[in-house]
Amino acid sequence: MSSIVHYPLYFGVRLFWALFRLLPAKRAYPLGAAVGRFAFPWTGNRRRIAIENVLKAGIATDVAGAERIARASMGHFVGHLLEGLKVSEFLTPEHIKLHVTTDFPEASRALLEKPGQPVMVITPHLGCWEVGVHLLTALKPTMALASPMRNPLAQRFIESHLRKDVEIHSNKKGFSSSLIKRWKEGRILALVADQHAGRHGIWLDFLGRPASIHTSPARLYLATGHPMVVGAFVRTGPLRYHGVLSEPLTFELTGDRERDTVTILDTINRHFAEYIRNYPEQYLWFHRRWRQKPEVSQRRF
């Protein structure tokens, strides 16, 4: 039952969508990028965090260089969100053929295309992940986790209009039995797994510094044995993209759950670091990735 307080936001979303549909798809990214770059000096703490993160990662050696990358990152983030809202208007099979290039090992491509084969695709907040998940649906039915809105009316509208090709599961429910069952039927499970994991994470190297890492990809692999690949989907020009994937990740498991978890996550993080260093202006630097390690943790193995 929806409360009356939900209606103002719901009608606001519908109004925005009605106006936004008038904007040509090719104009969405430039508009968003301009807004993001313009707003950058007034983003306060987020601006400071982004600059500090770029320096901590060793992407830039001075504040001026870090600020340039951080500003470009904010422009890209807003631009890619707006472009992602237009994906159904332009990401047709013909557009993919002409304007999307890929660097997929044959073994990884075979996993994505094989009917009935569950596979996990893990990516950082890099490039155009909102567009990339729709590209995966062209290969195989795809699931993803996302934070639900508190407004159920707006949530239903978004699911039916903006992400209708992707099966979205609430990350509030975690990896439920229903999600695992759907995945085992032969779907792609797309995970964005590079943000601070808090007390439930394990502290490992991320871009040269210790950070709390989500253990979910490793726990899923150890529980199911389903193959995983690490990838990224970056923007190369107006409505043009390039997708990269690792070889399927394989591990010699020891039976020591903590040790095997560390091995899996270290491998994923090395791939993340390579992609991020190649495209730093397209990475989301505004998250407080590196924080003080707590005295007590609640690791999930």
Which secondary structure elements does this structure contain, and how are they paired or packed?
Layout: H1 7-20, H2 25-39, H3 45-56, H4 63-85, H5 87-90, H6 93-99, E1 100-103, H7 106-113, E2 119-123, H8 129-137, E3 142-146, H9 152-161, E4 167-170, H10 177-184, E5 188-192, E6 202-206, E7 209-213, H11 216-224, E8 228-237, E9 240-245, H12 257-278
Parallel strand pairs: 1-9, 2-5, 2-8, 3-4, 3-5
Antiparallel strand pairs: 6-7, 8-9
Model description:
The chain is of the alpha/beta class and 301 residues long. It has a domain at 93-282. Helix content is 47%, strand content 16%. It has helices spanning 7-20, 25-39, 45-56, 63-85, 87-90, 93-99, 106-113, 129-137, 152-161, 177-184, 216-224, 257-278; strands spanning 100-103, 119-123, 142-146, 167-170, 188-192, 202-206, 209-213, 228-237, 240-245. Strands 1-9-8-2-5-3-4 form a 7-stranded mixed sheet, sandwiched between helices. Strands 6-7 form a two-stranded antiparallel ribbon. β8 (228-237) and β9 (240-245) form a beta hairpin. The longest helix has 23 residues, at 63-85. The mean pLDDT is 90.
Features:
301 residues, alpha/beta, seven-stranded mixed sheet, two-stranded antiparallel sheet, 12 helices, 9 strands, globular
Q: Would you tell me the structural class of the helices and strands?
A: alpha/beta
Helix-strand string: HHHHHHEHEHEHEHEEEHEEH
Distance between the termini: 38 Å
**Helix share, percent:** 40-55%
- The low-confidence parts are none
For the largest beta-sheet, the strand count, sense and barrel status come to:
7 strands, mixed
Estimate the mean pLDDT confidence: 90
Strand content: 15-25%
Strand order of the largest sheet: 1-9-8-2-5-3-4
**What is the C-alpha radius of gyration, as a whole number of Å?**
19 Å
Number of distinct beta strands: 9
- How would you sum up the global shape? globular
**How many helices does DSSP assign?**
12
